[in-house]
Amino acid sequence: MRPWRALRVLVCTLVAIYLLAPLVVVLIISFSSAAFLRFPPPGYSWRWYANLLNDPAWMDAVGVSLRVLVPAALASTALGTASAVALVRGRMLGAGVIGAFLMAPMVVPSIITAAGLYIIYRGLGLNGTLTGMVIGHIIITLPYVFATVASALRSLDPRLEAAAATLGASPVTAFRRITLPLLAPAVLSSLLFAMVLSFDELIISLFVGSARLRTVPVQIWSNIRGDFDPTVAAIASLCFLVALTALALEALLRRRNGDRE
Amino acid sequence: MTTPNPGTLLELRGIRKQYGRHAAVDDVSLELRQGEFLTFLGPSGSGKTTTLMMVAGLQQPDDGAIILAGRSVDRVPPYRRDIGMVFQHYALFPHMTVRRNVAFPLEMRSTPKAEAERLVSAALAMVGLPDHGDRMPRQLSGGQQQRVALARAMVYRPALLLMDEPLGALDKSLREQLQMEIKRLHREQRMSVLYVTHDQSEALTMSDRIAVFNEGRIEQIGTPSDLYERPATRFVAGFVGETNFVSAVVLGQEDNTYRVSVAGAPMAVSARFVTAPGSTAMIAVRPERIQLRRDGEGVPAELVDLIYLGNARRFVLRLAGGEEWTALMQADAAEESGLHPGDAVRLSWQAHHAAAFPAGGH
User: Fold this and answer.
1) What is this structure's pTM?
2) Do B84 and A166 touch (CB under 8 A)?
3) Which of A15, A54, B90, B329 suits a disulfide with B334, CB 3.0-4.6 Å?
4) So what CATH class is B242-358?
């Protein structure tokens, strides 16, 4: 048993290093005092974080990202939840096909979705608009919301809704008082996940955006292609921090939900 | 719409429910009287639960009419039917306390708060859980959860209480205890109850009347003793209580008995179904109605085994044709008989305790 145990610890450690090393390197470089990317850095400073705050291009990008992710995640959560309820609970013809269709953006390479959107938007004049960007992000995040809420709904006993009906609750009341509160952890965690996904999304934003409408990943991307300094590492570290917070919140929600079962 | 008999709370007329080409419920008609405890008894898939769901409005019949309290409820959704329902797996709302669960139907009816508080407390006291109001359902045992479900379904005094195998998930002693409690609540609250079970002893203990379901149809509807003593079909004779079957040739009819030949022995059975002499009939006799003797008249059989039941003994018998029968005897009588496994015995019964059914049919 002992040698196997040692081997298991070793493999797990290697995998953890493999996964975390790039993040750690980026985190360390973001505090570098040098004006170029070098590892290990010759010294440490906050200058790249200060640079980030003082550069209007970066601040604009953060603003755009927030103005896209908040409405996109909210709309995607509402639509995804509604579709899950309709497809799982309703007796709808072709529910399977509609479900597969909703899941498609997750399977189709996003460059294809992005190219398709770009072509459609050209006719509609939506390229380079906030509305166009939000719609694109809804499409990309919808499958995750739908899948999360649908699976939570499938494990929710439909007899609870039947019981509510026999006790005098109309379908709307039963949904509001019984189904929705029980789905709340799944809905909230898919809202968080949709926000993170939207914040991360590069390809759609690249196609649909413009020079004046740049999200954070687009700004990082164009920055890397041009003169490349540790400001990128600083913003990447901040993104990492935001994602980590969201994931921790999500885990917390799931644990509370687990306690309930 | 013709007016139903006074005192009729619920009437089903020719209810049908089809799943694909299979009729889950086929032409079911019955009446439930005010204050009656009526049980749907049958094996799984016999249509009893589907029928209950249609009364609740949770499923729609393909044909027929459901008349509740004098009005047709075809187009009435479940939440306007004034029914209460208890499910097998309790279906308590897991995110609400016991009190909030029980208060839920009152809230739906906009009962004033003070009145609702009083009714919830009374309902919880009624089911023996006055101090459990602040618990969450998951903190209660199965039996307690079902009591809460019962309180929740009764607190608003619905015209009709529906129960779908409410004790099916509980162990035997708890089940018997709750059977008595549901009977008591029915008696004290004078509620009308439609009860679904596949457990025939539960149905016999609790019901005023029982409707026996088989393959989507009602085989017989009557009081427990009707079903047990005078089963209308072979299915009812076999499903309700324990019954011994043997096929016999009908020799002739005298008044209300047939003379039949069972394994060569001439016997008498009650004649309620017309069968021509010479034809074959299926004879059904309850174990406790069989008399055993060492010799004399009767059907010859071998005593294969004797099972000790404490207050009674079960005799396992093999007839000449290979049929395995059981006879039940009280301890005194069994000891007096002095029979042992391996003995040859003669079986007899009183004509009115044996039923004859057409062979082949059910």
Assistant:
1) 0.80
2) yes
3) B329
4) mainly beta
